[in-house]
Amino acid sequence: MSKKDKIPHYIRHDMSALRRLILVSWIVFITFVLFAIASVVSLLYTGKNLDQLVERNLVPAIDSSRIALDIGRSLAEVNYILSICSNKEFSGEGETGKVLNSLASLADDTNDKLLNNSLIQFINQFESTLANCQSVRQITEEISVADEQLSNTIDSLDKTVANLIIDGRIKGNDTSILERLPLSITEFMQIQLRLDSLFSNLSDIFFMKELTKKHQLVLSVLDDFVLETRILSGYGNEIEVYGNQIKRLLQVLVNLTVQNSQVAEDYITGKQKLKVVQN
Q1: How many beta carbons lie within 10 A of that of residue 239, not counting itself?
Q2: What's the CA gap between 154 and 258, in Å, rounded?
């Protein structure tokens, strides 16, 4: 009889169960060890991947926020400059230079081609619009000078006519023709006042419709002025000198008004384009 035959049947059954228990325990242990190793490896990999995500996504996001803030600050400065560029006190060199340098640096720093192109387009449009704004200011200053010269010429004409009438009466000459002139000169002065009221508003920037209307009114008054001054040509050389000077100044004012209309229109159109670029 073998040893196996000598072990009772119920004991053999218990030993078989023990072996299975030990085997299951080893399997559980090995599984746990493998799981722990896998967790450590996964944790290390996840940490590395997180660093990559931060570097790839978070850093550019921070840079984008910085660029957005810098662009917003520059746009605010652009709007401020364009709001005061028509004032006589505005020099423009310092403020404009800083804004242009800031925008150019932003265009150079960004790797976004679309943003780069938009910034370059904005810079070019801003420079063009600012130049038109300063041209409007220069033209309105020239209009003011010519208008003042016209006013002084009319005053001188009025004094000259008054002196000629007095001198003619003293000499016993017929002054009836000359005595009609003061009424015409009074008409000149009234037209001059109408011009002054219109020119004083040309230095301000209107909406396109209002600006066009204002320029048309100026040209209409200038036409009336030309018609009135024709009477001066029949009063002799001394009066005709003033007539020619007045006509010359009126032509200067016509040319400046037309020029101002064109430049102001370009300025307003440029501002509208800048708003489109900003949006």
Answers
A1: 19
A2: 23
d(CA 89, CA 109): 34
Give the pLDDT confidence of 187-229 residue by residue, as tens digits. 889 999 999 988 887 766 678 888 888 999 999 999 989 888 8
Q: For the whole model, what pTM was predicted?
A: 0.70
Distance CA 262, CA 212 (A): 9
- Percentage of the residues of the chain whose pLDDT score is greater than 90: 23
Cα-based torsion angle of the residue sequence 49, 50, 56, 58 in order, rounded to the nearest 10 degrees? 170
Whole-angstrom distance, CA of residue 244 vs CA of residue 185: 15
Other CB atoms within 10 A of residue 31 CB:
10
Distances in Å between the alpha carbon of 109 and those of 64, 98, 191, 267, 273? 11, 16, 58, 30, 24
pLDDT band at 15 (very low <50, low <70, confident <90, very high): very low
